Amino acid sequence: MITRWQRRAAGCAVMVLLSVSEGQLLAQDASKDPQIQAEVTKALDNKRFRDVKVGVQNGVVTLSGTVDLYAEKEDADHKAHHRKDVKGVQNLIEVGGPTVEDVTLRNRLSEKLTYDRVGYGTTAFNAFTISVLNGVVTLGGVAYGPTDKDSAISLVANTPGVKDVVDNIDVAPTSPMDDRIRLATARAVYGAPQLNKYAIDPAKPIRITVINGNVTLSGVVDSEADKDVANIRASGVSGVFKVVNNLQVVGSDKEK
């Protein structure tokens, strides 16, 4: 018959064995630290990472120092994660480079994003929002597809003055019906005689996003009349359930 004391002694023995095993695992991880540090350092052997320092403890890599662009911070993290035996990465890198006033940075990014993906046929179907606070850029809105979203984030991350990027962009779900509605709405809106002038701009000032048959119009137009015509033309497209008209008029308080 096993007594209470025997059970307790057995439990203590198991705890000791577990403790020894954990210690052995940590020792094994630590033994690989020099090799990991050498491999990560080699992966970051580029002038972009000249001020980045690498530390390793029990397989966890710590990156510190500074880089010029936010994209370089993300790239360093990516390179460290993909080295053999790395258990995790703590990215403490700070983004240096120039300090740009928030309003100036926002306007600069807005102009760049407006013309991003021009020539790929999806420009009119991307509608992004941008806010900047102390160099931290928050992106929102809807992207036509993952490629359009990645392109927008990359553009922002490679802009001097951006210290961090918060990604709140949604990607429109894949839908043949929505694709048909997008094209039909674009033809209806940009084909209106009063709105044809907007088709000349490769940036397509009137943006059309479609999710499950619901159309949202965004961007900037010259007058309330143009805004109303766009709404009427979009509402007349077959298959459209609802139109949300977020178009802004040049010179309005909201547009400013």
CATH topology grouping of the largest domain: Histidine-containing Protein, Chain: A
Q: Write down the domain tally.
A: 3
N/C terminus separation: 85 Å
Give the CATH level 1 class of the largest domain. Alpha Beta
Mean pLDDT: 89
Give the tally of β-strands: 12
SS class: alpha/beta
User: What is the rounded Rg?
Assistant: 27 Å
Tell me the helix content.
Answer: 40-55%
- Count of DSSP-assigned helices: 8
Assess the beta-strand content as a share of residues.
Answer: 15-25%
Please write the string of helix (H) and strand (E) elements.
HHEEHEEHEEHEEHHEEHEE
The CATH architecture of the largest domain would be: 2-Layer Sandwich
Biggest sheet layout: 4 strands, mixed
Are there runs of 5+ residues with pLDDT below 50, and where?
none
The shape, in one word, is elongated
Question: What attributes does this structure have?
Answer:
256 residues, alpha/beta, Histidine-containing Protein, Chain: A, 3 domains, 8 helices, elongated
Task: Explain what the structure shows.
This protein has 256 residues and is of the alpha/beta class. It has three domains: 4-95, Histidine-containing Protein, Chain: A, CATH 3.30.1340; 102-171, Histidine-containing Protein, Chain: A (2-Layer Sandwich); 176-249, 2-Layer Sandwich (Histidine-containing Protein, Chain: A). The chain is 42% helix and 24% strand. It contains eight helices and twelve strands. It has helices spanning 4-31, 33-43, 70-81, 102-114, 146-157, 176-190, 196-199, 224-235, and strands at residues 52-57, 60-67, 88-91, 94-95, 127-133, 136-143, 164-167, 170-171, 206-211, 214-221, 242-245, 248-249. The strands form three sheets. Strands 1, 2, 3 and 4 form a four-stranded mixed beta sheet that branches. Strands 5, 6, 7 and 8 form a four-stranded mixed beta sheet that branches. Strands 9, 10, 11 and 12 form a four-stranded mixed beta sheet that branches. Strand 2, helix 3 (70-81) and strand 3 form a beta-alpha-beta unit. Helix 6 crosses helix 8 (224-235). It is elongated. The mean pLDDT is 89.
